[in-house]
Amino acid sequence: MTAKVLINGAWRSSDATGTFQATNPNTNEKLPTEFPISSWADCDAALDAAFAAAREMRTLPAAVIAEFLESYADKIDAASDSLVEAAASESGLAKSPRLADVELPRTSNQIRLSAQSCRRGDWALATIDTAAGIRSCYEPLGPVCVFGPNNFPFAFGSVSGGDFAAAIAAGNPVIGKANSTVPETTRRFAQLALQAAQETGVPDAIVQLIYRTGHADGERLVSDPRVGATGYTGSRSAGLKLKAAADAAGKPIYLELSSVNPVVILPGALKSRGAEIVDEFMTSALMGTGQFCTNPGVVIAIKGQATDDFIKAVQDRFQSSPAGTLLSPAVASSLNQSVKTLCDLGAELLAGGGEVEADRCAMANTLLKATGKQFISDPEGFQTEAFGNASLLVVADDLAELREVIKTLEGNLTGCVYSDPGGSDDDAYEQVAFELIPKVGRVLNDKMPTGVAVSAAMNHGGPYPATGHPGFTAVGVPACLLRFGKLTSYDNVRPARLPKLLADKNPTGETPRQIDGAWTTDDVKG
Amino acid sequence: MTAKVLINGAWRSSDATGTFQATNPNTNEKLPTEFPISSWADCDAALDAAFAAAREMRTLPAAVIAEFLESYADKIDAASDSLVEAAASESGLAKSPRLADVELPRTSNQIRLSAQSCRRGDWALATIDTAAGIRSCYEPLGPVCVFGPNNFPFAFGSVSGGDFAAAIAAGNPVIGKANSTVPETTRRFAQLALQAAQETGVPDAIVQLIYRTGHADGERLVSDPRVGATGYTGSRSAGLKLKAAADAAGKPIYLELSSVNPVVILPGALKSRGAEIVDEFMTSALMGTGQFCTNPGVVIAIKGQATDDFIKAVQDRFQSSPAGTLLSPAVASSLNQSVKTLCDLGAELLAGGGEVEADRCAMANTLLKATGKQFISDPEGFQTEAFGNASLLVVADDLAELREVIKTLEGNLTGCVYSDPGGSDDDAYEQVAFELIPKVGRVLNDKMPTGVAVSAAMNHGGPYPATGHPGFTAVGVPACLLRFGKLTSYDNVRPARLPKLLADKNPTGETPRQIDGAWTTDDVKG
């Protein structure tokens, strides 16, 4: 029996071109349920339904959409056991503390924060110029396709994660394309979302779900005239193909791709608290078996005794720590390939490098080392992302060489700099930060990059090729909603015809609006 | 003698692959100065200098960049006669009232408003989360290439217009690519900008100028790793080629392309004040010989006596009004071609349709008519932009057909709806606006689209293919600066290392910042 797709409010048999099964990475066994590979007919039907839902949603009060999100968040919390069960089988991630205690509450929290922003309209940058008679705000831009990744089945899931919540909160329906590693988990979320939709009176087609398509159909989907925009989190190669298709059609696409998240450790930091930094690095590097978007994949330091000690300590810990389970056979194979690429380029293998057991998806914790000169000689090669429990240490001869290494970096989500709290690294910090900041979406001090707080000030984004655009964040409410908005000006539009956000009266009494140059929650003065 | 390019603060001979001359459209005679067609060597040198200037600008106080802009604005005002003289020769636009009294003051005003936003940092959406220890804001993203259009040699000029001012105010140097119709005008602006740079202590390479490149070099320029982003205003075909190149390299590009700016006139409006609407339409349609981005190219009405009267009145006025001068031989030729295309599709020619005089660039004021059915049968064809003094009237059988016409529209900068002030059109308005708003960047009531106020609430943008992205505006400070910013989060960054915009103390005492969820100009409380 093949699972059903969710199209236009009904679970129905897919017009399928084939089926697939997910694998339990803890056993390497295929999971029983067969999921359909949708043909274009499924995509086309979902697009029609989404387009109709988007029209309907334009006249819904924001509060109703917010209620849908809140109802959905409650259902997620209530269904925690079932969701965690499915995700643990499909992803190999630990039920506790990871899935049940961290990712699930984060997911429902993100949805609730998005609901709050939807209700308040604080994301829409309402701007009123009373003298010119012009008012503007961001509005929904149409159906959003969301392609979720394999590494956060809840918090970035295609019908549960940040892109989903942001797209809905901005007033758009979502067509979710499940990550093929977690189809059953995603199906369970879609069931809850549909229930919430039916109970709160939003269009059923506010959420739809397909599990997989052929590549050509995926490209056709993101470039279809009925689509408003796409959010994608996943591999660089697949993402760039979708980007090319969407770009050619003039459709916005927001991508979160690969990132090696450089961590620079300056000498004074190692001297003053090297042991602590070893601990922090270990936790960050091996958390979730290294499968975080913000995993510290490249650590850069300057040669010297303290660096040697750091490397030795990390090497010991990599060797002695148990290897976690990887998300899928494809992840294991890709990690193997990346490590091989780095070794072929001349990186020295300090730990791991091979598979550990045959009956699960796993690879020994892998630590590689290269010199600054090696890195600079082939920066593209040495920035090969090794997604998983592998990190590359780069040892520069001196600060000048370290700076040169940073100058060769591509765009990244994060960049960390550890420096001496006593101030001995302050000059070096300035030089390093100056080169690093333009390359990253988030700069951190004295702190590892994993852990993406859900904060209004969070930027989970960064320059290409970490993402597709340097101006947007995938996390952080309300900023992340802007991606799914269309700016609209109302010029001389009669008062009764203005959207509520732009009416004289503040729609909620607490919606921030820029009126004649100043942000305020007041009404427009008569 | 060939004009010099401005690279790295020096007027120097171009490494040219050829030369070109502009034409005076009032006489069809070539203007004397030869301008170089730059080779890649010029582009490469400009990119190097811009990249270095961008690094330098990152450490300049915002106030210094603001002073540069203000000094430049003053110089523009003082050099008005010379600028107007050059622009009148090259563009055929009237010295007065257009160039001297409208466009020039608008241009220096835009620059001053951008300077004010630069100084206050109000564009950067500074966001502070004290509990999480995360702060974010938009920052410069690197050198910006600006390709200016032919129709606003000042206000959208590549080294004087809105994109230029926005890019600089966001902290980025500009490489201007002059529009080939107005090279001497653009050269004069660049001279003033260089003087202002030298007097205010910003890097000389904050502004550079080339006049023309081969197509391949243009595409290479916008996709070069040293570039931060590109602003382009011009033809759809050239713009989309640049977009493809920039997209493939992951470089943001903001395009303002073609737009037919639909104007819907509902029956009650024609009945209640038809004669006034004729006047308003005539002014808007023939202003600047119809060469405004927001020219009302398509007027849609419902058949009936009032519509017949409107058409007759407009036809008479089109026939009796003198034909203005077009911007260049290329514009005249393209307008001729577009009118021919529309006639070939079956549009009825009510006025004009041919060239009027041999010794200047001009075409008779051209009015075309089609039925709603014709339009719906080939919407792409009937949306052929006829850039210049030509408009298409579309007469629908009834409101339902009018809605169908609107549903077939592509993205546009503007959409206008005229309706009865007495309320008889209110139901029709709702139906029309519902279809129209998703298609346009700015919706207007009872008002023609020409006239793009410089207002914080202005959106001069719109869905593809009117522009490249539905979320951005080319006009309206501070919103238009966001295009040239990169979002950066500072996570746990030590207080002394934060950018001034994110420090506890409000940098100007009047910079709006979102602190813990509320917009305020206060300092962060200790």
TrEMBL record, chains A, B:
Top-rank taxon: Bacteria
One Pfam family per UniProt: Aldedh
Keywords: Oxidoreductase
InterPro entries tied to this protein: Ald_DH/histidinol_DH, Ald_DH_C, Ald_DH_N, Aldehyde_DH_dom, Aldehyde_DH_Superfamily, ALDH_KGSADH
Keyword Protein transport: no
Region named Disordered: 502-526
Domain spans labelled Aldehyde dehydrogenase: 11-443
Single annotated GO MF: oxidoreductase activity, acting on the aldehyde or oxo group of donors, NAD or NADP as acceptor
Family matches, as PANTHER family: ALDEHYDE DEHYDROGENASE-RELATED, SUCCINATE-SEMIALDEHYDE DEHYDROGENASE, MITOCHONDRIAL
Name this polypeptide is given: Aldehyde dehydrogenase (NADP(+))
Organism ancestry: Bacteria, Pseudomonadati, Planctomycetota, Planctomycetia, Pirellulales
